[in-house]
Design a protein that fits this description.
Length: about 375
């Protein structure tokens, strides 16, 4: 059985006519950068998210970098962010000569550990970047309270959770990425809303920040050839915007299919005592960008399980094998405090199973049988 970790091929085949027509219209128009198709996508995504401003850009890493640039942070300013995440979150902090302050994650949600943040705030702290990891939101009520109490910016890394709804304690429901000052997302092909190449977007409800973000994306200029600030060249091309316009209409269905697959995994793995299945936070939908288990016996057994999957040609991935505070490029930012035991333990235990909108029950059964055979 041909099981893929992410099945972009089958997903395309199901909407091939819509996508092909949209792409052909762009090619026929001759407008490949900006133009009406990108404008249409901006509006559609803003309407879907319930946010005032969407600024498309070239990729999710650019989105994070541009967001921090728009905040006017200075070299040496500190940004608090989890160590257990994809490298882009910390990479952009370092590129801008800011200082990442690593914080541990919650062992259930894998998202930022709120309890560690107050002890890390100094007079140089300027922002918090919570990462909505694997498809569900961090505890944004607590993040926003801390940010308000200490006059900090909040930049949400929403690359893995687009479409998830966050339910505040006061009953308000918002899409992830629209709660903080700025939200950032990626349209990398494997994402829940994936392009057929690179792409990203930044969103905000703040008019002033929106203007700064747009200017930075466009070489620092509002009027062509007149540059008011230092910027970058980061644009979502019209072909990718056309594809995303089509796929955005299907996003809720895609996320629903991922939830159905996750529910089946949960049922079939309920009697496997050697693994911990994903937890669902009460404050967030889970859109299951990944279905990530914990293998209780630790690294040796986890690596043995992964090798067994490889041998049987059934996909599984380790996200992430080394937390960022232990990575060669970023270890010098961490002086040993605070300790980050959960991040270190998760890196030894996590294993992600195939997860995408086209998974069949038969494929899920094969994956589960493969896993059970390892115990």
């Amino acid at each position: 059985m041909n099981i893929r970790m992410v099945d972009t091929i089958s997903q395309y085949q199901a909407i091939q006519r819509e996508v092909d027509e949209a792409v052909q219209e762009v090619i026929a128009s001759g407008i490949y950068i900006n133009g009406p198709v990108v404008g249409e996508f901006k509006k559609s995504l803003a309407d879907y998210l319930g946010v005032k401003h969407v600024i498309p850009c070239a990729n999710g890493t650019d989105a994070l970098q541009i967001a921090l640039m728009a905040l006017g942070l200075q070299p040496g300013d500190e940004v608090i962010t989890p160590s257990f995440t994809y490298v882009a979150t910390v990479e952009v902090i370092a590129l801008l000569q800011l200082k990442p302050i690593f914080v541990d994650v919650d062992p259930q949600s894998f998202n930022i550990d709120i309890t560690q943040i107050p002890g890390l705030i100094t007079d140089r702290t300027k922002a918090i970047i919570p990462v909505h990891l694997f498809g569900q939101a961090a505890n944004m009520d607590e993040v926003m309270k801390l940010a308000s109490d200490h006059n900090l910016y909040v930049v949400e890394d929403n690359a893995q959770a687009i479409g998830a709804a966050y339910k505040s304690s006061d009953g308000k429901v918002q899409k992830t990425g629209t709660i903080g000052d700025i939200g950032c997302t990626s349209f990398y092909p494997s994402k829940n809303l994936g392009a057929f190449g690179d792409g990203g977007a930044i969103y905000t409800n703040n008019d002033d920040l929106a203007e700064k973000l747009q200017v930075i994306c466009n070489h620092g200029c509002k009027v062509r050839y007149y540059h008011d600030s230092i910027g970058v060249n980061s644009r979502l091309d019209a072909v990718q915007a056309a594809i995303l316009n089509v796929k955005l209409k299907h996003l809720d269905r895609y996320n629903g299919s991922r939830n159905e697959a996750a529910d089946m995994y949960d049922r079939l793995l309920a009697d496997v005592d050697e693994v911990v299945t994903p937890w669902r936070a009460p404050w967030s939908d889970h859109v299951f960008h990944q279905y990530t288990l914990r293998i209780k016996e630790g690294r040796a057994k986890r690596d043995e399980v992964k090798a067994s999957f490889d041998q049987k040609k059934v996909p599984a991935m380790i996200y992430y094998p080394v937390p960022l505070h232990q990575q060669k490029a970023y270890a010098h930012y961490w002086d040993g405090t605070p300790t980050l035991p959960v991040s270190e333990k998760l890196s030894e235990e996590v294993l992600s199973l195939p997860m995408h909108s086209e998974l069949t029950n038969e494929q899920i059964q094969v994956v589960v049988d493969t896993l059970k055979s390892c115990f």
